[in-house]
């Protein structure tokens, strides 16, 4: 199965055009994908290679208590998923996606280098524990400071990479060209597939190196790979199709809000055609198409009502703090409409986050031997998540979509809203199953008299955890890719980096929600006898299954919420000027994208 299974003629048409006797290469197209993907692959190799085993690093190398280590991990994940909002703002407003990715990658490189040095130099870590665990010394303030500064730099660097790489790759396909516009949904599938392969490599090879050779090598290899990817990404610059930044999208949203408030007392016009429209003015921020008026949120339409004070006869631009075009009003409506769907993704990420914390601790306590001399690193258990995700993506792209297309008539098979809904349902089963597996694990510990021994290996196969890991992978193949499609497709063209940042913002909120949930459960489940659902030192004495089932209940409520939001959601209507139509100049079509 080739990575880009398109006909050779389509590839040539996407990248070349003939002018007279000369052949001129167009910007963008499939040829740019290796350069763009190399950056994302190495970023994922670095961050996942560390995150997959980070709980082990914090507990065994820095000697943190389990709950503190789990919260450190989710806080870092939350911060790294929140910084894309900053990167998206800079990209959409000033720098453009290429330079934002480049600078972000360099900052990420500095953070990874610092992290690698801290893993190599013994004085930057506490002394190893002696046989008696009671004399373990936790990392001091200086050692933790180096760790946190390194993580902060990687989080800031990720903020420049994550919101821009996805949108930058999609930018290489021209939406105004019918031959390319239908390729974006397939691009998202293969983007996630390539990312999944890099994650698979991270949770197997990199984690194995960390556990068996050392953290210096385990972090050093991704650091070198990141350096090489930066060079490859920059080399591809002449081939890229770059979109110029169109000014701060947040300023435009604020201008519409202010204008609507200032004109709140005006009566609404009877005919939407009387609202202010200026296609020439809006083309600078939306080359692919102009948003048309929708009937929802009529209060915001007042920002486009023309009054004598607006003085639009002047050749100068209107005062955007008083008067905005219909397109700019619809930009704000689009963002508001996406909000409820965005929020639905938070709880799913909260559930998914447990794979890197408590599910990993479950794996560490179980029999992980494949042979007498080789055992699976606990951090590599997420390989089952990745394999399931990759298999699901391939099945979805090659089998499911062609079959579904015959029934729905949609090029992408089913809508991204349906795809996300399937992911939500599967995620519910993932945490439900995880709770029952934890009951089985504790029964095995009790049967062998190991309940009080936190460090003993329980004679139960780690493969009991495969169903929960696999279900999470299948859920991600549906939900996360559907989420990406949703944000890119439904966001205003000038705000696509910001839209990708919203995707990462949901991941950030989900990680922070996990931190809050773990903290609250740990606090309120504590009993006078010292028992706790989520104990600090001995998972065998806890009630982790109750925690999993609590998340299952939250996901069920969230699923109902999502179904209501999806049924009420209105797709973005846009007027597109297609290239290569039957008419000489093209034709404008009004459609819901």
TrEMBL record:
Membrane topology, record value: Multi-pass membrane protein
Query: Where's it mainly located?
Result: membrane
Protein origin, superkingdom = Eukaryota
Query: Pfam family example for this protein?
Result: PTR2
The protein's UniProt keywords, in alphabetical order, are: Membrane, Transmembrane, Transmembrane helix
InterPro entries (alphabetical): MFS_trans_sf, POT_fam
Query: Where in the cell is the protein located?
Result: Membrane
Any one GO MF term held by the record is: transmembrane transporter activity
Which residues are listed as membrane-spanning? 106-124, 145-170, 190-209, 216-240, 374-396, 416-437, 501-526, 546-564
Q: Name one GO cellular component term.
A: membrane
Q: Which SUPFAM superfamilies match?
A: MFS general substrate transporter
What the record says about family reads: Belongs to the major facilitator superfamily. Proton-dependent oligopeptide transporter (POT/PTR) (TC 2.A.17) family.
Q: What is this protein called?
A: PTR2 domain-containing protein
Q: Species name for this entry?
A: Cephalotus follicularis
């Amino acid at each position: 199965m080739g990575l880009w299974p398109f006909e050779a003629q389509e590839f040539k048409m996407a990248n070349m055009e003939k002018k007279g006797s000369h052949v001129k290469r167009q910007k963008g197209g499939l040829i740019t994908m290796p350069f763009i993907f190399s950056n994302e692959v190495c970023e994922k190799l670095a961050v996942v290679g560390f995150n997959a085993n980070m709980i082990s690093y914090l507990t065994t190398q820095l000697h943190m208590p389990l709950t503190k280590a789990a919260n450190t991990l989710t806080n870092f994940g939350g911060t790294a998923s929140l910084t894309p909002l900053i990167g998206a703002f800079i990209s959409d407003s000033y720098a453009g996606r290429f330079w934002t990715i480049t600078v972000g990658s360099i900052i990420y490189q500095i953070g990874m280098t610092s992290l690698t040095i801290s893993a190599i130099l013994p004085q930057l870590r506490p002394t190893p524990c002696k046989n008696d665990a009671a004399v373990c010394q936790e990392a001091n303030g200086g050692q933790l400071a180096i760790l946190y500064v390194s993580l902060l730099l990687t989080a800031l660097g990720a903020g420049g990479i994550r919101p821009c790489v996805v949108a930058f790759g999609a930018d290489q396909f021209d939406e105004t060209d019918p031959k390319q516009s239908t390729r974006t949904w397939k691009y998202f599938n293969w983007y996630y597939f390539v990312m999944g392969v890099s994650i698979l490599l991270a949770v197997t090879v990199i984690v194995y190196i960390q556990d068996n050779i050392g953290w210096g090598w385990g972090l050093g290899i991704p650091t070198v790979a990141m350096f090489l990817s930066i060079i490859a990404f920059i080399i591809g610059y002449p081939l890229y199709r770059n979109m110029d930044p169109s000014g701060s999208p947040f300023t435009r949203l604020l201008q519409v809000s202010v204008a609507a408030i200032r004109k709140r007392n005006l009566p609404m016009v009877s005919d939407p055609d009387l609202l202010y429209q200026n296609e020439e003015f809006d083309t600078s921020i939306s080359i692919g198409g102009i948003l048309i008026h929708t009937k929802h949120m009529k209060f915001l339409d007042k920002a486009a009502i023309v009054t004598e004070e607006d003085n639009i006869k002047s050749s100068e631009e209107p005062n955007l703090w008083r008067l905005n075009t219909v397109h700019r009003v619809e930009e704000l409506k689009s963002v508001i409409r996406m909000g409820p769907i965005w929020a639905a993704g938070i709880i799913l990420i909260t559930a998914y986050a447990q794979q890197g914390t408590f599910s990993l601790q479950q794996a560490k306590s179980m029999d992980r031997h494949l042979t007498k001399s080789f055992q699976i690193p606990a951090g590599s258990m997420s390989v089952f998540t990745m394999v399931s995700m990759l298999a699901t993506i391939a099945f979805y792209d090659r089998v499911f979509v062609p079959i579904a297309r015959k029934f729905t008539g949609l090029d992408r098979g089913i809508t991204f809203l349906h795809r996300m809904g399937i992911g939500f349902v599967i995620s519910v089963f993932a945490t439900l199953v995880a709770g029952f597996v934890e009951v089985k694990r504790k029964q095995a510990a009790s049967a062998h008299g190991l309940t009080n021994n936190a460090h003993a290996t329980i004679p139960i196969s780690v493969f009991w955890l495969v169903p929960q890991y696999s279900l999470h992978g299948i859920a991600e193949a549906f939900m996360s890719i559907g989420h990406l499609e949703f944000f890119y497709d439904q966001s205003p063209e000038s705000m696509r980096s910001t839209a990708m940042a919203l995707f990462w913002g949901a991941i950030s909120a989900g990680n922070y929600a996990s931190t809050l949930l773990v903290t609250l459960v740990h606090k309120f489940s504590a009993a006078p006898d010292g028992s706790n659902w989520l104990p600090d030192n001995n998972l065998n004495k806890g009630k982790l299954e109750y925690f999993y089932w609590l998340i299952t209940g939250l996901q069920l409520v969230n699923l109902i919420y999502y179904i209501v939001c999806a049924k009420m959601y209105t797709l973005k209507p846009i007027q597109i000027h297609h290239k290569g139509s039957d008419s000489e100049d093209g034709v404008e079509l009004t459609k819901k994208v």
